[in-house]
Amino acid sequence: MEIVEVGPRDGLQNEKKVLSTSEKVAYIELLIRAGLKRIEAVSFARADKVPQMADAEGVMEAVPREEGISYIGLVMNDRGLTRAIATGVDEANFVIVTTDTFSQRNQGASVDEALVQLAPMVARAQEAGLKTTVTIAASFGCPFEGEVTTEQVMRVVEAAHRLNVDEIALGDTIGVGTPSDVRRLVEASRSITDKKLRLHLHNTRNTGYANAITGYEMGVDALDSAAGGIGGCPFAPNATGNIGTEDLYYLLARSGVELGIDFEKLVEASLFVTDRLEISAPAQLSRAGLFPSSALSSRK
Fold first, then answer.
1. Is 233 designated active site?
2. DSSP output for 65-111
3. Domain boundary assignment for the chain
4. Closest CA to 242 of 227, 254, 263, 221
């Protein structure tokens, strides 16, 4: 099981306060010290749409380039991919939304149009040596059209599989999913593809952690989380924070999963970013602490 830290991107993009480039880099450095290896560091969205992500080039220029650390950049369009390649990200995360209304608001294109645009972008990213992920946003429900069918999600899974991406992520963008939804979508995805599966979960309705442990038990390869449980989607009403990395750590570690994460340093990263944002962390473990207080890695 792998934790993908999305705090520097999905965590920051919906917060009111915009952090400086140096603060973002310091946050990323703390996450690396805590043992996080895959970090979604930046988004190559338009600065007028997502001003919190306007300094993607500056962040990527300043982050430490250490062996074993993989930086992910969110890519929305061809221009964003050009920027991503130029900055030297290790992975490109492409987003396709399941419904036309949300897709138009998020990317200015219908689902059909977005899928047509996706193919050459994935090919170009692969030619540039980037690993590729397709995140299927609103897999569990749409803020504008309501329920999303399994067929709508699998249509995008099939397209991503045909493009031979490295990974497919099912995104609960507005935090409406339940464990039964996770089982339904993971089972359907596994019937189509053997690519790595990842879950991007939000805790908007307090089901994020139940969904995460369900995904783990079903054998998904990776789970997204944000230190502090911060963030959300600026294009989706009421899309509140991601599941917190420290809370996810506790859930998995108490379940016997070895993660290679230093909890105290993770809390340091969480407190650093929430202090800079001038908010209280939605995640619980930075306040509650571990149980027992000794390292969970020794628990049998």
1. yes
2. --TT-EEEEEE-SHHHHHHHHHHT-SEEEEEEESSHHHHHHHHSS-H
3. 2-298
4. 227
Identity of the residue numbered 129: G
Work out the widest C-alpha separation in the chain, in whole angstroms.
52
In order of 74, 79, 199, the CA distances from 160 in angstroms are: 16, 20, 15
Residue 298 CB neighbours (<10 A)? 7
Q: What tokens does 222 get?
A: 């990776």
Nearest to 73 by CA among 45, 37, 46, 42: 42
Regarding pTM above 0.90, the answer is yes
Residue that has been written with the tokens 């689902």 in this structure: 111
Query: What's the CATH number for 2-298?
Result: 3.20.20.70
Active-site residue, from 45, 159, 233, 269 = 233
| CA atoms of 25 and 221, how far apart (whole Å) | 27
Please tell me the predicted confidence (pLDDT) of residue 300.
37
Pick the closest to residue 224 from 188, 203, 199 (CA basis).
Answer: 199
Nearest to 46 by CA among 234, 277, 237, 239: 234
Neighbours of 249 (CB within 10 A): 26
Low-confidence ranges of the chain (pLDDT < 70): 232-239, 294-300
Alpha helices in the chain (DSSP H): 21-33, 56-62, 78-87, 100-107, 111-127, 150-162, 179-190, 208-217, 245-253, 263-277, 285-288
What does the pLDDT look like over 148-177, one tens digit per residue?
A: 999 999 999 999 999 999 999 999 999 999
Q: 278, exposed or middle or buried, with CB in 10 Å at 0-12, 13-18, 19+?
A: exposed
